[in-house]
Amino acid sequence: MRGLIMDQPQLISNLLIHADFVSGDREIVTRTVEGPIHRYTYHDAHRRARQLANALQSLDVKLGDRIGTLAWNTYRHFEIYYAVSGIGAITHTLNPRLHPSQMTYIINHAEDAYIFVDLNLVGLIEAIESELPKLRGVVIMTDRAHMPETSLTNALCYEELVNGHSDDLEWPVFDENTASSLCYTSGTTGNPKGALYSHRSTMIHAYASALPDVLHMGEREVILPVVPMFHVNAWGIPYGATMVGAKLVFPGALLDGKSVHELLLAEDVTMTAGVPTVWLNLLNHWREAKTRVPSLKRVIIGGSACPESMIRAFQEEFGAEVRHAWGMTEMSPLGSVAIAKPRITNDAEAMRKQIKQGRPVYGVEMRIVDDAGKSLPHDGKAFGELQVRGPWITSGYFKLDHSEAHGKDGWFATGDVATIDEDGYMEITDRAKDVIKSGGEWIGTIEIENHVMSHPDVLMAAVIGVPHPKWDERPLIVVVPKTDKSPTHGEITRFLDGKIAKWWMPDDTVLTDELPIGATGKVLKAKLREQFGNHKLPNGN
Ligand code: ADP
Fold it and tell me: ∠390-391-395 over CA atoms, to 5°?
């Protein structure tokens, strides 16, 4: 027997309709790309999104068309999210840090009809426009006064487009399984692959992300997503925050420690989110300027493993709780959050849980399997490939008939190697492709890195495998020193002694000025292996 409940599609436009209704006066603040701070409300955003939706329809944008964005976190980008998806077209966020050849590939693969571009990123499209046969035009996200000279053939002005149309629009209603946005994985191996989200998946993800034990979003929160809107939709914050009417603060193009700090402070931000590398800059700024942000209660850190030293810095020095989270582009992206259970009151035990990647968010099922695909126990020791399934996890890649990661039995293979403990906390040992194979056994690099980064003289560290005649591979530490005092290999191994298994102890340490960082702020291990692959270990022959 079916329940007698209305069959109403879950559509992204409903978020903005609702926010306008109940939190219409709540602010959205932006550091604009042009410079000044811009402020308006959910009510204004809804009105302008409707104007933009009318403008898109006048450009003949139809259901299912892909509309690219090459833009920072701003109110205009927010309006585009809602206007494009609201009329059933697909927002396709592009990462400006990608190599031009990858950007060209992605735009052509997605067949973007229009691209909305921020003022300081116009050059990126100019450089490749001749290689984009399907592109019908580019909208430059500024007003007439700031329109640049451009070689683009069909360059439109964003403010003229919006202001040239009325806000008289009823958001169309369609199937909730309609595609809403498209985000490509960073493609460290092979071409980037497209994760195509639906209205339904985005809405369910928004509900889940707002929960107190997930991102804890509510109307009283002031949320500054440092994580870019081109990095898995800023982890869904532009949707979840709108659902609850939180005040949003968009940092625009300035993501250095000082600029982020100023905005956090000026707007009384209570919660922020980003990858570990951006927080190093903020923490440095706080320490140097001897300052902090008293209103800040929570920092969401994910995208790569958050070292214990960073968790301690935020919590113990600066009074903000860290929520370490794990996810993937293919997962919209939220998978798990590491918060200590209520029963855990001991600080050391709580920290041991926080450095793990956490327990699955309701909606995500998880399992670890061995090579034969058999489920492994939850004992915190057995490790295997992590697989997931759920209503916001991709079932395949855009325009790709076959994906090895999407198994026939309905599980998605993450490519991460992990353990799950008795309490349900998942801990990533490594990306399968980064794990070190030594004498037939695996050495996980994340745990070693975590310890090395707690060394007082280490700013950043990565551990990679380098070839070894007897053991196949042995670990090498690559360190960016924190101060003028460079730590020696002996100092680091003494520091690691007792913290990791003896046979995991790295064979050597090299110092470097910086680590190669990819388009989403992660250390590029493949680049490091190219760079240091021929490193001669002291006992290597
Ligand atoms: P990107 O986020 O760079 O676009 P992916 O979606 O491919 O690319 O990144 C997902 C991967 O990032 C995960 O499979 C995992 O390896 C890594 N990752 C994400 N969050 C964490 C975390 N908290 N700890 C460790 N690794 C993480």
Answer: 80
- Amino acid code (one letter) for 459: L
DSSP code string of 145-180: GGPPP---TTEEEHHHHHHTS----PPP---TTSEE
Six-digit token string for 89: 């077209």
Shortest-distance atom of ligand 1 to CA 324: 23
CA distance 39 to 30: 6
Asked if 531 and 514 count as a contact pair (C-beta separation under 8 A), the reply is no
Which residues are within 8 A (CB) of 32 and not within 5 positions of it... i.e. 6 or more apart?
Answer: 38, 74, 252
Determine whether the shortest distance from the Cβ of 185 to ligand 1 is under 6 A: yes
Residue 231 alpha carbon, nearest atom of ligand 1:
4
Q: Mind listing the pLDDT tens digit for each residue in 168-216?
A: 999 999 999 999 999 999 766 678 999 999 999 999 999 999 999 999 9
Distances in whole angstroms, Cα of residue 227 to Cα of each of 231, 233, 300: 7, 9, 10
Mutate to test the pocket of ligand 1, among 181, 278, 388, 416 (most ligand atoms within 8 A of CB): 416
Give all domains of the chain, ordered by start, each with its CATH number. Answer: 14-420 (3.40.50.12780), 436-532 (3.30.300.30)
Catalytic residue among 321, 442, 493, 527: 442
> What does the H/E/C string look like for 339-408?
CCCCCCCCHHHHHHHHCCCEEECCCCEEEEECCCCCECCCCCCCCEEEEEECCCCCCCCCCCCCCCCECC
For the question of residue 185 being annotated catalytic, the response is yes
Quickly tell me which residue has 């951006």 as its tokens: 278
Identify the band that residue 484 occupies on the pLDDT scale cut at 50, 70 and 90.
confident
| pLDDT per residue as tens digits for the range 486-522 | 899 999 999 999 999 899 999 999 999 999 998 888 8
What residue type is 295 in one-letter code? S
Active site residue 437: yes
